[in-house]
Amino acid sequence: MFFSQGGKEISCWHEIPLYAGDGCVHYICEIPKETSAKMEVATDEPCTPIKQDVKKGKLRFYPYNINWNYGLLPQTWEDPGVTDPKLNAAGDNDPVDVVEIGAAAHKRGGVYKVKPVGVLAMIDDGELDWKVIAVSADDPKAALCNDVEDVEKHFPGEIQKVLEWFRDYKIPDGKPANKFGYDNKCMNKEFTMHVIQETHEAYVKLKSGARANTEELSLV
């Protein structure tokens, strides 16, 4: 799936702004809730289209449906050359992931304004892979959710379900469970916005050339 503007193909990773005002950010839906095809932005291909991941010549699917809308924050990047001192893990070389927990199913390729309310520090095969928990700005419960505690009140048990889903989804393929930093705790809104800002700054360095593109990512 390619994005276009004015008849010209563009990169959703590079051309869609991160910040959406009112403490919200934009996210791009790669995997709508209750689907299993492992779709993701191809950061190493020109215009970074959304496409299904392939492993050993086969299209990849999760072993079961994902129960939330899943996607990425544009103009963010988890730098594999930077090790987080508290977590002792470097970035996974991808944009930051978003788990949107609202009621409505989103469309693949849709761009949505969301309220970030927390973040899980997933460690996947030794790499840091942040999972931002967010609520769509137009969800009926959005106005009630401004931080992690509100999510527990209005979406009881949901964060734990997200953690367990991402912890365990590789087990059916014979791989070990993923781990989480900060004692499996979902960090608060302030911490989350700091992670978003930090990964945005890493992206800006990559895009501007201040950080060498040693990973050979597509910057167009």
Automatic annotation (TrEMBL):
Q: Which InterPro entries match?
A: Pyrophosphatase (IPR008162), Pyrophosphatase_sf (IPR036649)
| Keyword hit for Magnesium | yes
- Listed name of the protein: inorganic diphosphatase
GO molecular-function annotation terms?
inorganic diphosphate phosphatase activity; magnesium ion binding
Instruction: Identify the SUPFAM superfamilies for this entry.
Output: Inorganic pyrophosphatase
Specify the domain of life of the species encoding this protein: Eukaryota
Key words of the record: Hydrolase, Magnesium, Metal-binding
Q: Name a Pfam family for this protein.
A: Pyrophosphatase
Query: What Gene Ontology cellular-component terms does the record carry?
Result: cytoplasm
CDD domains, A to Z: pyrophosphatase
Which Enzyme Commission numbers does its entry carry? Answer: 3.6.1.1
Instruction: Answer yes or no on keyword Hydrolase.
Output: yes
* PANTHER family with a match to the protein in the record: INORGANIC PYROPHOSPHATASE
Q: Which GO terms describe its biological process?
A: phosphate-containing compound metabolic process
Reaction(s) catalysed (UniProt annotation): diphosphate + H2O = 2 phosphate + H(+)
Name the family: Belongs to the PPase family.
Cofactor(s) the record lists = Mg(2+)
